[in-house]
Amino acid sequence: MIALSLNEAETLCAKAARGAGYCWGQADDIGRAARALAAEGSDFGAALLVLLQTRESFIAPTPERLARWRAGGPDIAGVGALCPVLAATWLTDAGLDAVGLRLINIGAPVWLDALLRPAGLGAACDDPFAAGDATLIRRPGPFETGKRAAVEAEIWRALNAYAAQTYVPESESSRRRGAGGGRVDDD
């Protein structure tokens, strides 16, 4: 197990999400949600790895689905698992009081739950890691309880591999301009 501060967990998860292809805003939201999961003692690292590894298989909410959610009507099934990050982004941006809305086939619903918490919502489901239906519920925002986070070494390495996708490749030109350590680093 690798012990991290909650700040380290948040930063690592945000970088890993960005490295996996999420935009910076969504990556920052994922990082904050991961911090909340870690503070609660949840296995945030395994949850993030599931999200990042299955990201390409998720679908975005269609305009028809969004219209139904806005009107308070029942959800309709898509051709694949609904992306929890895009669904949470749309629901919070729309400012809907969607308590009771049942989303059909949402991927990695633990993320829908964690991402909706700042809006006072959450998601109840059977398996937080597997795609399935989730019902939106009222849930208070995240309350930090723990001061440290823990992640398995293998998961930590996998998340760091995603995070490394955000790094700029080294070059002689960047070193001449002061990037990296060496002669310009006097710490």
Structural commentary:
There is one protein chain. The chain is of the alpha+beta class and 187 residues long. The chain has one domain. Helix content is 45%, strand content 13%. It has 8 helices and 5 strands. A hairpin with a 6-residue loop joins β3 and β4. α5 runs parallel beside α6.
Strand percentage lies at 5-15%
Per DSSP, the total helix count is 8
Classify the helix fraction into a percent range: 40-55%
The class by helix and strand makeup works out as: alpha+beta
Key features?
single chain; 187 residues; alpha+beta; 3-stranded antiparallel beta sheet; 5 strands
Topology of helices and strands:
Layout: E1 2-5, H1 6-19, H2 24-39, H3 44-54, H4 63-71, H5 84-94, E2 102-106, H6 109-116, E3 121-125, E4 132-138, E5 148-151, H7 153-163, H8 172-176
Antiparallel strand pairs: 1-5, 2-4, 3-4
Could you give a quick summary of the protein structure above?
This protein is an alpha+beta fold and 187 residues long. The protein has one domain (2-167). It is built from eight helices and five strands, in the order E-H-H-H-H-H-E-H-E-E-E-H-H.
